Amino acid sequence: MSIVEEWQVMRVRVDGVELHYIEAGAGEPIVLLHGGMGDYRSWRAFMGSFGASHRAISYSRRYHFPNRNAWNAVDHSACAEADDLEALLREIGVAHAHLVGTSYGALTALAFAITRPQVVCSLVLVEPPLHPWIRSSARGAAVHDAFVSAIWAPARATFEQGDVRGALRILIDGFELQPRFDRLPETGIAQIMENAQAMAALLSSVDPFPNLPQRDVRALRMPRLIIRGECTSEIHRLVCDELNTVMADARYLVLGGTGHACVQQDPSAFETAALDFIRSTARISVT
Length: 287
Prior knowledge:
By secondary structure, this protein is of the alpha/beta class. It has helices spanning 47-51, 78-91, 104-115, 138-160, 164-176, 186-193, 196-204, 214-218, 234-246, 262-265, 267-280; strands spanning 10-14, 17-24, 29-33, 55-59, 97-102, 120-126, 224-229, 251-255. The protein has a domain at 10-133 and 208-283: Alpha/Beta hydrolase fold, catalytic domain (Rossmann fold, 3-Layer(aba) Sandwich), CATH 3.40.50.1820. α3 (104-115) links the parallel β5 (97-102) and β6. The longest helix has 23 residues, at 138-160.
């Protein structure tokens, strides 16, 4: 894994939205979409390796550092983020790209793919929060409701009380099934705090996890790789299993010994799997 220490941060303003991004390399583009509490810096350790064979692009989604966009979070969701991605690609001259997303970035990539399939060469989806999908079964509904009552609702209430750090602690500890937040270095916590507005947007939204139609996801034909952590929470495991059922011909990889943050917990295994998959798609014609 190669670490890029310095890069030029670029800025575009498209459709009234400011977006910052970095890129490395040349060739067929790979767009990297970070998770809910990350930003373009989340992929800095992968820019060298992805950029060695492709044009690697990592950007900060609408409410993430260092973007300064007007607050309009009543119905903010991955669907709005997908519109932003379309505008960004148009502005920087990308007609086709591989999309690699983790957590909410993966949900954004999937929302983009079902409405603009002709743009997407392949999809790498790491634990996209398709939470509504599991509510049709009794077990899934119970797990979903437990997530809302134990993690999402308390985090929202804590944000509303003005305790931003406390709300982020609830989310991170809940996602990782352990008290991880307070064990992070202060530099890591500071970076998470710089993205607090993005989580506030989702916590304030009436539709933070849009119910993407399964028929549209099933109809996707570009190569797809689903990745989850072996030790991830039950809600993410159930979602990924359901996604694998819907995407019956997709590849499905479980990274051993990792949780929801599997990309950061085993970066070498993730990097190898994602790059090998993307390289293999060069032999596949996408229609």
